Amino acid sequence: MHGSEHLFDYGDGVEIALQQSFDDLGTPLSEVSFVVVDVETTGGSPQLDSLTEVAAARYRGGELLGTYQTFVRPDERIPPFITALTGITDAMVADAPRVGEMLPSFLEFLGGAVLVGHNIRFDRSFIDHALVATGRDRLANPSVDTLALARRLVRDMVPDCKLGTLARTLRLPHQPSHRALTDVLATGDLLHALLERAGSFGIVGLEELLDLPRLVGHPQSAKLRLTTRLPHRPGVYWFTDAAGSVLYVGTATDLQARVRSYFTADRRPKVGRLLRQLHAVHHRVCPDPLTSAVAEGRLIRAWAPPYNHQGKPRRTGGTGRRRRRRRAAWTDEQLAGDPTSLLAPLAELLTDHASHQRYEEAAAVRDEAERLRGLLTRHHRVESLRRAGRVALSVDGGRAVELEDGLLVGGDLPVAGDGHPDERVIVAQWLAGNAERARIVSVGSPRGWSMPATRIPSLAELCRSSAVTRSTT
Known about the structure:
Elements lengths: L4 E5 L5 E5 L13 E9 L9 E10 L2 E9 L8 H7 L3 H4 L5 H12 L3 E4 L2 H14 L9 E3 H8 L9 H7 L10 H19 L7 H10 L19 E6 L5 E7 L2 H7 L7 H9 L2 E6 L3 H15 L2 H4 L22 H4 L3 H17 L3 H29 L2 E6 L4 E5 L2 E3 L11 H13 L4 E6 L2 H5 L8 H14 L1
Helix pairs in contact: 5-7, 11-16, 14-15, 14-18, 15-16
């Protein structure tokens, strides 16, 4: 299926075509193999107690494909209260395989499936302990905990989230009995009942399901539906309010994962305000992260979204002797000159303040010097790009990205380039931080590209030089 194309018109002739494909949505839950597991044990500690029974059931697309069940001979006698709870006696496990003999068949049944359990940490802790004790690696399979899902999805419908309570309240076909296989089948029923409810939050893929316990707890979780159709591909995204005004523009290497992260990890007040105003999420897939970064910059300049420009409030007034140092303005001509001639006076002033224990003044000079050093570094990187002329780069092994005097050309971007100097800065900074991801295909002016940028000395080097000079004079 090829998906469908959506057109969004944001005025000023900006019309964006969004091509969506079902291949972009992650792993559909209907294609995921789940293995529900349950263990019975002689106690609650993997280090002190042993497995007595292991059962599992494999599901795919809601269909039960097979079951696994075996007793396990423990290293100790089964306590009477465990026998009373589970019905498993010493006689029942007397001829059962030891844990090391059982594990190969269990691992074969599990394969690469997603592991599922009700309070899966308990079951997994015993299995992992047995694996390590027999010289094997711990399980690497992703896992889903139906207990955590139930607490998020149906907690207001049930008095508690015990497996038996959920099975009765939701009228599941199987009821648990503290025996591994019946508990597994009840958990399998619960899993599919919860997956149905998860669909109301737009959860259609495995990646979203694994994040669901955190996502559903967010105060704006009802808006998770807006992220369902976002692909797992690089690109730009933007949030709009009910009036269609753009609130925020961002870039991502994985669009869906990035937008969903606003509903999980980020609890800043600014993000909370943004999500409360959020009405729709739009996106544009880009061929590579560099193109995404440039597209983000162009859209921010075109739309000036309020949440891209909100900064920390400036402090006014102040007490004590500390005063804010006025930032110097540097011309292009100065930044193109010798970096040492600009930085050395600041290093000398910093050394002087420090030697007289004027530490607040020294810190202000240090900050100014570091700011200037950053400006110099950025300027020389940009100039190197500009001198190179026409450059073709392959990013992450993909098709060539073309630059002309440091500006991206072509690339089917949302808005046309306007030659803004900020775009050169974006390109230069991205290449500086991701040099290993870009391969040079061709360069119009090799000498301009290969010419090493003037080395900019560190502030520590300049301060040492200033101290040596002062000591010799």
